[in-house]
Amino acid sequence: FQSMREISAAGRVRLSNVLNVYPSETGFKPFPSFFNVTSAITARAQGAFTTRGLQGTIVNFCGDATKLYKEASDGLSWADVSRAAGGVYATAADGWWDFAIFGDYTIATNGVDVPQYYQLDVSTNFALLAGSPPTANFVGVIRDFAVLARRSTAFNRLTWSAINNVADWAASATTLSDAQDFPDGGKIMGFVGGEFGIVFLERGIWRMAFEGPPTVFRFDKIANFLGCSLERSIAAYENLIFFRAPSGFYMIRGGSEIVSIGNGKCDLEFTDTFDANYRHRVSSAIDPIRNLYLISFPSGAASSGTPNLIWAYHWPTGQWSQAVSADHEMIYIAATQTTYTIDGLDAASGTIDGLPYPIDSSFYAGEGHLLPAAFNTSHQQGFFTGTSLEVTIETVDTQLVTGKKALLQSLRPMVEGTSATPSITIKYRNRLQDASSSGSAVAANSSGICKVRRKARYHRATMTIPAASTWDRATGLDDLVFTAMGSR
């Protein structure tokens, strides 16, 4: 058995049996449990966003089918900040709210209602964005322009605002506002802004770069047939963009280089696991602290399409893991909005036991701290900042002695931590076409050794680390003791 990191890199750990951990440069690390603390919004969360305004204000927004919400400064409740005129919103059951920040203006769009805006430190409610903007599914910003993509009247069209004026959408050679239709590739599936834009279609990807008058933007196709198959699988960080295509998971680096990140690792397993009937329930996020791309989706075993899995891709090592298996509504990266001191904890709870998060949680670390967040099925938002979940890491079948059976007697799980007692279960068989038999779980003794004693041609080890254990990383299985047996 190689170290678990080497096994994962070589594809010798099955992703479906690597649970509640995330990859890192030094081995698998524990993924924290979820803690919900906010009040519930009215219905299923269908989009969320975190931003900082020009005055330094940090705000989290979210939306459901009929309302938009703003999180209170203490991070413990949501206030309805929907438009005061025009009635409730009409987000489709398979639709999402998309958000972007342009200066102090948070823009929200859902593909049905006219785009809304909320001016940080000024607005009380969202309101109709001025300038007669088109209804669209996606919103983003390129340099000094706001962009609305997949218009409700033309799924292959995007429109950009006047330069440095989000309240002017009339096409004009003077203000540089205009639109672009894509001649092939199907409908727009997503948009990522920045210094330049990346437009995802069903069968194609385009780069959108500012040129100035008279063309304003130049459009270059960087993928002729490869496109995005899951709208909310798109997530970006710095010069990296991650997405799911029909053929697998990919990463765009630097706006032009397209790299497969799932081939031979998880692409086929995702296809087998994902319930494609509920593709609109997929969501994704970037964890910039751990260097992870996270994707949430429902498996075939999910209840009515409720997302129940979160997979993690660690881009520095190219490794995947199954980070979480629990029902939830969506994931996103949220920012903490308040800095707490020891004395200030009274504002969150009158007792230590009543605090919404463990005392060492990053939630209290300071304003603007980015944390993986989710909404649970009760429509409450929270963070993955709790104690460690129960961990399972299983290797593939291994023949310890070439051409012969082997008696595996003991092995050492390599887990670094102050309070963790891992156990090992050995699965075994003599022919690959036979079902595996399983021994009992054996906990590591005072010397860190698991005495297993199993004779077979093929052995497979499953390491389990109990929930709420305190540990830093799991790096492998070592000190295998086995004896060669006969070939029959």
Verbal overview:
The protein is built from two helices and 39 strands. The strands form ten sheets. Strands 1, 32, 34, 35, 36 and 38 form a six-stranded antiparallel beta sheet that branches. It is mostly beta strands and 488 residues long. 42% of the residues are buried.
Give a quick rundown of the structure.
This protein is an all-beta fold and 488 residues long. It is built from two helices and 39 strands. Strands 1, 32, 34, 35, 36 and 38 form a six-stranded antiparallel β-sheet that branches. A four-stranded antiparallel β-sheet has the order 4-31-30-29, with no helix packed on it. It has a four-stranded antiparallel β-sheet with strand order 5-6-7-8, with no helix packed on it.
List the helices and strands and how they pair.
Elements: H1 4-9, E1 13-19, E2 21-24, E3 27-30, E4 35-36, E5 48-52, E6 58-63, E7 68-71, E8 78-80, E9 98-102, E10 105-109, E11 116-119, E12 127-128, E13 136-142, E14 145-151, E15 154-160, E16 178-181, E17 188-192, E18 197-201, E19 204-212, E20 216-223, E21 235-237, E22 240-245, E23 248-253, E24 257-260, H2 267-273, E25 283-287, E26 292-297, E27 309-314, E28 319-325, E29 330-335, E30 370-375, E31 381-383, E32 391-395, E33 406-416, E34 423-429, E35 437-438, E36 442-443, E37 450-456, E38 458-465, E39 473-484
